[in-house]
Write a structure and sequence with these properties.
45% helix; metalloprotease; elongated; 9 helices; DNA polymerase, domain 1; single chain; five-stranded mixed sheet; Cytidine Deaminase, domain 2
């Protein structure tokens, strides 16, 4: 059914303006972004299909522009650009939250931010969040790609980047494309290696966060840092 055929109080735009965004379901909010469907498929149906294909809102936020291009109805650039822009805005909003509050007081915000940045990657990525003396975010840098071992992540490079940012602490982060966020023995060994290297320059390893689509684990919360 086309949006124009819905009762006025059931149309997403009117419903949002009258009752607020919390009154709308995920598909209705997405339909407002998409605006139009395709031949024989209304925009609400398209929104439902898009969420189903990518595993809900979280999965959609992890989708790349190339992933979206393969979905029927998003072959053009305009709608894809808008969805990618929403992802970037979400990342920036989380980054602002981390800059405004102490990282140690907001473990969930750190996990959410890392998940948005890394969870959807098809390959393993190792990143570091550099923190100031109040443990607020200075920057996030992706430093290494590929299977993580003590030999594939270079402590010297991590130390140099920490000194460059004048960081007082760091959060280590990487993704598991397999979907499991349980730390491996290599993850544990790498954490201890970097912890020892950074301690030599008085930089604290606050946490090591592991993410996958729809999941995140804090090694600090597990008593492993």
């Amino acid at each position: 059914m086309a949006l124009k055929d819905l009762p006025p109080d059931s149309r997403p735009r009117e419903k949002l303006l009258a009752r607020g965004p919390s009154a709308l379901g995920d598909a209705e909010l997405l339909a407002l972004l998409l605006r139009t469907g395709t031949a024989g498929r209304g925009v609400l149906q398209m929104a439902h299909e898009l969420l189903a294909q990518f595993g809900g809102v979280a999965g959609l936020l992890h989708a790349s522009a190339d992933d979206l291009k393969r979905f029927k109805g998003l072959g053009g650039s305009a709608k894809r650009a808008e969805l990618v822009a929403v992802l970037e805005l979400a990342r920036r909003a989380l980054a602002e939250q981390l800059r405004e509050r102490a990282a140690l007081d907001s473990a969930q915000a750190v996990k959410d931010y890392v998940q948005l940045q890394l969870a959807g990657r098809p390959h393993e990525v190792f990143a570091v969040l550099f923190l100031d003396s109040q443990y607020r975010l200075i920057a996030l840098e992706e430093l290494f790609r590929g299977t993580l071992t003590q030999t594939s992540v270079y402590p010297r490079e991590v130390v140099l980047r920490a000194l460059h940012h004048h960081a007082s602490g760091v959060v280590l982060a990487h993704n598991h494309p397999s979907g499991s966020v349980q730390p491996s023995r290599a993850d544990e060994a790498l954490t201890q290696t970097l912890k020892a290297a950074l301690a030599l320059v008085d930089v604290r390893v606050v946490d090591h966060v592991i993410v996958a689509p729809g999941a995140a684990l804090s090694m600090a919360e597990q008593g492993m840092v």
